Each structure stands twice: as structure tokens, then as C-alpha cells.
Amino acid sequence: MFTGIVEEVGEIVDVRQSGEVVVLTVRGPRVSDDAAHGDSIAVNGCCLTVADPGGAQGDEFRLELVPETLKRTSLGGAAPGAKVNLERALQAGARLGGHIVQGHVDGVGTLLERTPGERSDEVRFSLPPDLARYVVEKGSITVDGVSLTVAGTDGDTFSVALIPTTLADTTLGLRAPGDPVNLEVDVVAKYVERLTAGYLGGSRDQQPQDTTGQDGAK
């Protein structure tokens, strides 16, 4: 589990195809410091397993992306030089600074518009239609691994206000209109829907397609 509080902006240094799997090498000195084989690290909001810590430079780690992850997240378009948001899994007893984030990407949206302010930006994203019902004003949403508060919704779009720290310390300060972003809606909303569906006349099986989990396995 994660909190959506990005620890550092890393860089993809190598992308290699190995059969149906894509192997990413990511440089991130802070999250690599104590990374071990099998650890979970969120890369742009997608929970992935460290296959090989350390790397040639000692500040890198390798990850394996299976077809499910490539299909359901923006990481299918990963290229060397790309900047990515990194967060290690939450330790028991640590502060939950953002909100409950699973690292299971629900869908890919697109940055539609950004309106710069004096120090902050207002940014609008597209929202896959099957996720719109889970996004509410002043609720939480994860965009490329960043825990954000929804400023407003309008059909299949939503907007957020980015503070200076978010602009400086995450890749959202670099994103431009047309860029894809990984989205994860608040898991609490999905559980509430499933648990109340029988009482409200809906089907308990009515829910979005399975989301990507660790390495796309869940």
C-alpha cells in the first residue's frame, strides 16, 4: 500500500524487451537506498516489484512489466530519459500523508488543459467513463502516483489545483496537454458501491474491469 506522497522523481535509463516482458531500469537514489529483491515500488502510481536492486550505478533498480501492466497503464510507452514519480511501500506505523493508494491503476486519462497561476496551476484531465462515478468534488484521486484533491468534476473530466510543492517535486509540473496519466480512484468508493449494490437494486457484480495490481497481476 502507498499514500500518494511522491518520494522522488526518478528517471528511466533503459527499456529492454525480454519475450513478452519489458524490463525497465529506473534511477532513483532515494528509493534505491534500501531496496531489496521483491520490494514494492510505485512507478507513476503503478505498484511494481523490484526484480534486481542496485544496478550498475548502485542507484538503480530493475522492474519487469507484464502484458497486463503494459496494456492498462501509461508505462507501455515508457522510454529512456522519461521522468517518473517514485514511492516506496508504506511502512506500518508511518504517517498516512495522502490517502489509501493501492498502486492498482484503474485507467489512463489525458491532461487536457492547464491554467497557470502566480504560483499554482489548475489542471484538467479526461476521465474514463466507467470511473466517473467514483470521482467527487473534494474527494481523493491518484494521478501518476500523486495523491490529489478533486477541485471539480464535469462529466468525463475532472480538475485539480497543484500547489508549488507538487509542481516542483513531482512530474505533474512537467506534464503538457496531450500527455497520458495513470489514474487510481478512491478504493473506498468502489467497496461502498459493491456492498450497497444489492440494497439499491443493482448487481453486486457491477464494477469496473479488474485493475492492475503489482506487475499487473491483480
Terminal residue distance: 13 Å
Mind describing the biggest β-sheet?
6 strands, antiparallel, barrel
Which band does the percent of strand residues land in?
35-45%
Helix and strand element order: EEHEEEHEEEEEEHEH
| Oligomer class | single chain
Shape: globular
Q: Structural class of the helix and strand makeup?
A: mainly beta
List unreliable stretches of 5+ residues. none
Task: Enumerate how many helices there are, as a single number.
Answer: 4
Percent helix range: 10-25%
Instruction: Give the spatial strand order of the biggest sheet.
Output: 1-2-5-4-3-6
What does the average pLDDT come to?
Answer: 90
Q: How many extended strands?
A: 12
Structural overview:
The protein is mainly beta. The chain is built from 4 helices and 12 strands, in the order ββαβββαββββββαβα. The chain is globular and about 50 Å long.
Tags for this model:
about 220 residues; mainly beta; six-stranded antiparallel β-barrel; six-stranded antiparallel barrel; 4 helices; 12 strands; globular
Quick take:
This protein is mainly beta and 218 residues long. It has helices at 29-32, 67-72, 164-169, 187-196, and strands at residues 8-18, 21-27, 40-43, 46-54, 60-65, 83-88, 107-116, 121-126, 140-143, 146-154, 157-162, 180-185. Helices cover 12% and strands 39% of the residues.
